[in-house]
Amino acid sequence: PSTRLNIFHLVFLCFSLFSHGSCPVLECWFMKEKVSGGLSGGPNQDKSLLYVHKHADSHRAESHDAPLEVNPDRLYFVTDPAATLCHRSLNPRRGSSNKPMCEINPLHPQPSTLELAVPLTEPALSPIYLHADWLSTALQSFDKTMSISAITRAPTGTKEHDVILTLTTKTVLVQSRLGAPVLLDCSFWADPSSPLTGTGFAVEWRYQFRGDGRLVLAYDGKSDRLSHTGEEGATLDFEALHGRGNASLILQEAKVHHSGIYICSVYLPYLQAQVAMELQVVEPPSLSIHPSPLPLTAQGQTINIQCEASGFAPLSLDLHWEFKGADGNTKVLGSGSLSSHRQLWDGTYTQSSRLELDTADLGRAGEVACVGVHPGGTRRVSVEINLIGNSPSIEDSMAMVGVALVLYGLIKLVSWSFSGSEKRIKTTYVEGFKARRWTSFSLVIQI
Ligand SMILES: *[C@@H]1O[C@H](CO)[C@@H](O)[C@H](O)[C@H]1NC(C)=O
């Protein structure tokens, strides 16, 4: 019975592979247009399904297996010759709870008001072509690494859509070290058979951070020139742009002020698609301890140690102190007294911490470390600590006894070998004592 079950599964698997190819059936939310003036009653979004295929003739009566809860008006059959929507990260395993996100909005093509894109719309285009059902679909892959924006067109009244323009980014979130080159990925595909693709395109990159927006770069593909460069070191690969629709933004050197949201927009006459991505410039701190090495300190005294963290971004840093004793045990000493942050000319931050270290119960030796935990990594710097005891420790007493015994042995040896001149040796010792103020314990040995 188990083999029969496996064969059944296999047949089922083959069936689903053949019926959908490698292109997914996308579950999307269709966002209804707000009716102006009317009270918004009922839900403003509908569940919908997008059956995607590379070839138009692959759509065959698929609506039969549509789930009942989806309104048949919200089933769409999309032909995507470039197979952008067939990427495997849009097609999760069956039963997986991580699903791609998908939202559909109705679209009304309009001549662009953007200065850059106005020349594109000059030639009068067939109104019949524009007069159709247009949809704009925004997708994010289930692993959240890829975003796609797709514009599709269907003859009025039908549900059979053709992909006209897609825009993809595979760098939804980019982290970069300070000073490293950055590539923000953005590529587009436009249907070459569409009347909208003959007259050229335009690309625009915008930057947004906490409500502050600016134009980074604008490229007019019709006259092949950059019409705006608001950012030093920001450029496109023009060969890749014209050859493969690769509109990726290249930043030669990541700076702290580059952190933020970037929006890549591609314009065709009457159409515009955009995708957004985030760049985080992350640099861990450099740590230093002062004074280093630490001055010799008597046990029980307090030592003041300073740790400086510099050159880090973003702001979030946890600075704290640790003590590692000679026995290997580590003790967390807290964060000390922290200074406020200072921002340097390059946008990175500095912060310092002062530790008043009470040495009373630290033992005789160990290591004090300053630890900085930062999104860019954890850094630590340490300094050795050696304390001078006030009263002799047990080890010191043992050593003294040892030295005394060795001396005693030596003297005995000397007195045996010169047993005849014992008196002379004694005299020498007494003179030595007078001259150099020997300690009392060597006198004891002599007697
Ligand atoms: C786009 O162009 C950039 C710069 O030449 C390159 O590094 C990147 O790999 C290209 N992306 C694709 C998807 O080809």
Automatic annotation (TrEMBL):
The keyword Signal applies. Keywords: Immunoglobulin domain, Membrane, Signal, Transmembrane, Transmembrane helix. Residues 155-276, 285-386 form the Ig-like domain. SMART domains: IG. InterPro entries: Ig-like_dom, Ig-like_dom_sf, Ig-like_fold, Ig_sub, Ig_V-set, Immune_Resp_Modulators, Immunoglobulin_dom. Residues 1-21 form the signal peptide. It holds the Pfam family V-set. The chain crosses the membrane at residues 398-418. The keyword Signal applies. SUPFAM superfamilies: Immunoglobulin (SSF48726). This is Ig-like domain-containing protein. The lineage of its organism: Eukaryota, Metazoa, Chordata, Craniata, Vertebrata.
